[in-house]
Amino acid sequence: MTLSLSTAVIADRLQALTRAIDGGSGPGVLNIYDGTRPATGEAVTTQNKLVAYPFADPSAGSISGTTLTLLISGAAQLALKTGIASWARIVDSAGTFVADMDVGVGKEVVPLVEGVPNSQLYEGGEVSVSVATLVEA
Fold first, then answer.
1. Which residue in 4, 33, 102, 120 has the most C-beta neighbors within 10 A?
2. pLDDT in tens, 69-125
3. What is the CA radius of gyration of the chain?
4. Reported pTM
């Protein structure tokens, strides 16, 4: 059996996500990692954090139907390590798990290197993510 939700219910769920990101005393963070994505909410172990982006505070740019656009604060960030970006974790300002997602061309988060979508990141290189768009079906 498949659960189908109304657009209004989906919008409420996406708004709840922004409340979780904005929880705490400052902006949430989008951390991008290499390696295998752990089970939902499980600890990061052997994966390397490649880059971290603070969200705007508040994080919600807009909700349109079943699409949430999150705002990233500031300009490009420098990659912390060299690696292939494969997944991302959103945490609130206290570092509490909010969500995991895939990274790469055609995925929920697309890193840009010199303005071009690219999952290969190099330590010290500039990496951009202007917005993160999540679609709930």
1. 33
2. 888 876 789 999 999 999 999 999 999 999 999 888 888 888 888 878 888 999 999
3. 15
4. 0.88
At residue 86, what are phi and psi to the nearest 5 degrees? -130, -20
Paired with 100 in beta bridges are: 89
HEC letters along 38-82: CCCCCCCCCCCEEEEEEEEEEEEEEEECCEEEEEECCCCEECCCC
Counting beta carbons within 10 angstroms of the beta carbon of residue 133, is it exposed (0 to 12), middle (13 to 18) or buried (19 or more)? Answer: middle
> What single-letter amino acid sits at 62?
S
Angle, CA 95 vertex, CA 117 and CA 15 arms, to 5°? 70
The answer to whether 55 and 121 have CB atoms below 8 angstroms apart is no
Instruction: Give the separation between CA 137 and CA 123, rounded to whole angstroms.
Output: 35
CA distance 49 to 105: 19
Return the SS3 of 7. helix
Strand 120-121 to strand 116-117: parallel, antiparallel, or no bridges (unpaired)? unpaired
